[in-house]
Amino acid sequence: MVPDDRTSEETAVYQAARDAQASAQGEKKPNNDGVIQSEEKKKITGDLPDGRHELQEEEAYDKLGFSYPTHKKWRILTVIFIVQCSMNFNASVYSNGVSLLQDKFGISAQAGRVGQMVFLICYAFGCELWAPWSEEIGRWPTLQASLFLVNIWQILAALAPNYGTVIVARALGGLSSAGGSVTLGMVADMWDANNQQFAVAFVVFSSVFGSVIGPLVGPFIEVNLSWAWICWVQLIFGGFVQILHFALVPETRASVLLDREARRLRKNGQSNIYGPSEVKKNRFSAHEILTTWARPFEMFVREPIVLCCSLLSGFSDALIFTFLEAFTPVYKQWGFSTELMAATFVPIAIGYFIAWAIYIPTLWKQRQLINSDEETPPEIRLKPLLYLAPLEAIGLFGFAWTSLGPPHVHWIAPMIFSALVGIANYAIYMSTIDYMIAAYGPYSASATGGNGLARDFLAGIAAMYSTPFYSNVGGESYRLHLEWPTTILAIVAVFVTIPIFVFYYKGAWFRKRSKFAETLAGERKQRRSTKPAAKQAA
């Protein structure tokens, strides 16, 4: 069963029509406990050949995440914001531990970066592996299991007797990280496709902001503490968010909530009512497990929407990751110490915040347009990128040629341009994610898992070449050796921006070739077409 994503208004109209029909036929309506008192117990949909009835979303809509009060939804999202920050903090703070690993294990700086590469690449696949299970067994147990395992591997990394153990711990930590695919899937659980944008923007902000917390905190650990404290700080943060999630976040996945409601109804006398997961045969057979795990990878390869949006977001993230390697050599020209280097990441954080603020009025306008009676193409969600994505290339070019150092340029100049890069990076991530959640609805966790795969995998690769890139292009003896590497990144950013315009204007072509997205869109359109009939019946 593909869960329904109709809005509360549509459900109210649908229920009114159903009640009117029941009244005309003399059928009894459910009582307050949801137990249908009619002898026939006839349903509009969901009757199975064996006499069982599969509970539908419209029959228990008030039990689903869509019906949660607004304050409850945003309480959940606030906790998810902190959870997402902790996950990305784990990825970013490691770079400040490289010098500490060198001192402890006598390794080279390049060897020390292997731990970061391994974590990010495994994190990429972790997003894909956890996402479909959150759709099968629920978001809550999936995130709890993920957070618990990540915390366990922090202990192993902190107490590691050698660098090989650190690598193993980082790899397991990456694989254990559920990432944004699960947290973004929770957005689709609580908001329909036409009203999700503000929630998506908030969760995306948590993801990019979390990646900045590491460089803000890490320098102080690097200077004053040991390698083990890089891990202990992650464990403290991770333990706190796990307790917070355990206490304050309920389950949101519709199929899990329907299963719970079906069990409750059976206890109240309706022995033939079953949830969507309960009617599945061999749900946890080897074939079903492999099929579940393969779903996000299959969507990544076979769905052009997922593939193109993920690669676009991934290449942009790799550019940013490489670009950040320039901060240390560039700002050292102005005498920035290790602790003061933390301040150089503040403009990036400000850029992320500005981008989030820019999206708020933009999303209001989009919502009005999307919720109008006219058929609105989903590419409208990509429109902000036409104006914001070019800031990536502009910011990189500007940073490159304001990196001349004193007395030619003040240090504030490259910081301003780095904020522009932050704005563009947020916009690319936000719009591509929003587009995919709208296209894939209840299966958005698997779809956005492809986005996470591309972003983290390409960032992991960048972890190994970024330092040599800035050290070797032009040679350190060349006067402009810091300017040209960033200029090359800016040129690449221009080519990364071009597909955005192609996708915006030719999006229909991609959607027609994304079979799963087209199927879901057709089902949503069919449900909307019943709305006038429901109103007339009501």
TrEMBL record:
InterPro entries: MFS, MFS_dom, MFS_trans_sf. It comes from Naematelia encephala. It is a multi-pass membrane protein. Residues 38-50 have a biased composition (Basic and acidic residues). Residues 1-50 are annotated as: Disordered. Keywords: Membrane, Transmembrane, Transmembrane helix. Residues 76-508 form the Major facilitator superfamily (MFS) profile domain. GO terms for molecular function: transmembrane transporter activity. It is found in: Membrane. The chain crosses the membrane at residues 76-94, 114-131, 143-161, 167-187, 199-221, 227-248, 344-364, 385-404, 410-428, 440-464, 484-505. This is Putative multidrug transporter. GO terms for cellular component: plasma membrane. Its main location: membrane.
